[in-house]
Amino acid sequence: MHTERDPSRATPRARIAGLAGSLAIAVALGLWACGPGGLGRGPDGPPAGGASASAGASAATTSAPAPGPEARGPRLAVATENATAAEVALAVLREGGSAADAAIAAVLVDGVVQPVSSGLGGGGFALYWDAAAKRATVLDFREVGPRDLRPSDFDARPPKEERRGVMVGVPGEVAGLFELHRRFGTRPFAELARPAAELARQGFRLDPHLARTLGPNEAWVKATPRYAAVFAPAGSLLAKGELTRNEALGRSLEKLAAEGRAAFYEGDLARDVVATANAAGGRLALEDLASYAVVEREPLHAVWEGKDVYTMPPPSAGGLLLLETLAMHGRADVARLGYGTGRYQHVLAETFRGAIADRMRFVGDPAFVKVDVAALTAPERMRARRAAISETATREADRFPLAESGTNHLVVVDAAGNVASLTSTVNDAFGARLVTAGGFPLNDELDDFARQAAEERFGKPGVNLPRPGARPVSSMTPTLVVADGRPLLALGGSGGTRIATGVAQVVLAVLAFDRTAAEAVADPRIEVPPMGGLVLEEATPDALAEDLRQRGETVAKKPNTSAIQLVVLGAGPRRVEAAGDPRKFGAGLVE
Questions:
Q1: How far is CA 398 from CA 224, 357, 382, in A?
Q2: Dihedral, 486, 188, 84, 562 alpha carbons, nearest 10
Q3: Which residues are catalytic?
Q4: 243 forms bridges with which residues in the sheet?
Q5: Rounded to whole angstroms, how far apart are CA atoms 403 and 530?
Q6: How far apart are CA 577 and CA 518, in angstroms?
Q7: What pLDDT digit, counting tens, does each position of 232-272 carry?
Q8: Residues in CB range of 453: below 8 A, 6 or more apart
Q9: Nearest to residue 192, comparing CAs of 257, 88, 105, 92?
Q10: Is 126 helix (H, G, I), strand (E, B) or coil?
Q11: Could you tell me if 119 and 440 are in contact, meaning their C-beta atoms sit under 8 angstroms apart?
């Protein structure tokens, strides 16, 4: 392993060949300020949290006029949390790759340059729009409880350090990417894995989000030889912009490229995953990996103001929250409340609290629990709930112990109009904080199972309890809005329980208030913690915070590092826009 600690040295570029036989993609390894056609921002990007709409527009968004009648389909568009991943995805699209191809290449790059949130040891969900079939498909590659899972392992949380492995679920990301490729890919998988492998082997520069996340984890990084060699090779943490390598991860990616899916679920990588988890008290077996299966699901669907909304079904509860929000509020209703006002934010907060309660009471893995989303979102039920919300008072709400976190999201649109909206995760920062010999961290996704005490409060048998073979409930919310058979919005987010509420706020910002993509993702958002209260971003004016207090809200201000990635594919004069959230230094590219 080699590191380069001279940030003033000219940025190297890795040439990644093979997407079309003679193709070579130039990837800027230190991609804070891109070259021609890039993002046009400095090393730090806009401030996180309270970034202005104009800052978001200049820092993380590109747009172009919507194609005219003579154009052949929509333009290429990418929105990601990392600029290097965005450039790799756009390069794949330029050479005729599908949205699936570009998403796969970008997700693998994210696992190299942002391992805090995602990687080979995690899982996720993908929502894919097939333009030719005019059909949305959901692929569930969520982590799964091992066959030898024991519910008693989850009584004490967090587990003792030497028992962190009990939280490791069977990783699904690799299977999910191969399944996405099998259905919708057009380029060889090995070529799509090459950019990530070369970044890991030849070197990548720490982006601002990874650099700021390493700080709170410094003691663990230094005490973990496999990561100390990558992020603290000289005894101190590398800083933003410094160059490092993860050669073990590069070799793992090369093995995937050469041997396919089986390399992870049956070969040396499988043995590495099992050994790493079980050395810390985990209960994985090789049979768990060999039997892992991606599940195709029907997306949740609703019609809002004449537009089709497709979003994530259980075991995610994110789509339920979005559909309940849209069912309770038409465009005229939210317009009357006024965008960003105290009344608007309070009514949304009350809306979200009801959806969170429904999640805790009714949502689990469909293989074990029947989740009647149609009944939960029935018009009469939603009308009654909306009528019960006071615009001047806050109701006492149940509090739920739920600490979901992490994740990484990206959106890709290809020249044919196919769309990939994909969320990947290892849950907490660096997952279970167990790094394999293959250079990637393992998830701690089983922590998303509910606690027995929380389930028993409602006298229920337990819809989200730890079970062998079960997938824990998630907040991930890949979403697509279609108008007249053509995608209009594609988005999703990261940040645990803030994902679904963030997606709902951004959807309303665009569809009800005509905010641009840049404005919608950069505008301040509220957070409704399951344990109660209302969290505002640090830059929220004191007058607005006081307005909310007068409505009975218990208000706190905190930094917000959750992020929404958004592509808007407008019609007529509307611009085609791609916006990466400035809170995580996101990147939006359009061609």
A1: 40, 7, 19
A2: 50
A3: 407
A4: 4, 205
A5: 8
A6: 8
A7: 999 999 999 999 999 999 999 999 999 999 999 999 999 99
A8: none
A9: 105
A10: strand
A11: yes
347-to-28, 60, 525, 526 alpha-carbon distances in Å? 45, 30, 13, 11
The gap from C-alpha 496 to its chain's centroid, in whole angstroms, comes to 9
Contact yes or no for 537/560 (Cβ under 8 A): yes
CB 173, CB 124: distance < 8 Å: yes
> Chain centroid to CA 576: how far?
22
The whole-angstrom distance between residue 364's C-alpha and the CA centroid of its chain comes to 20
CA distance 317 to 329: 19
Confirm if 267 and 137 have CB atoms less than 8 A apart.
Answer: no
DSSP 176-241: HHHHHHHHH--S-HHHHHHHHHHHHHH-EEPPHHHHHHHGGGHHHHHH-HHHHHHH-TTSS---TT
305: Cβ contacts below 8 Å, ≥ 6 apart:
330, 331, 511
401 Cβ neighbours under 8 A, 6+ residues apart: 451, 454, 530, 531
How sure is the predictor about 450, in pLDDT bands with cuts at 50, 70 and 90?
confident
Q: Are 55 and 522 in contact (CB under 8 A)?
A: yes
The alpha carbons of the chain give a radius of gyration, in whole angstroms, of 22
Cβ 581 vs Cβ 84: under 8 Å: no
Q: Is the pTM of this model over 0.70?
A: yes
268-271, long-range: CB < 8 A, 24+ apart: 269/120, 269/436, 269/438
Q: Which among 362, 334, 406 has a CA at the least distance from the CA of 119?
A: 406
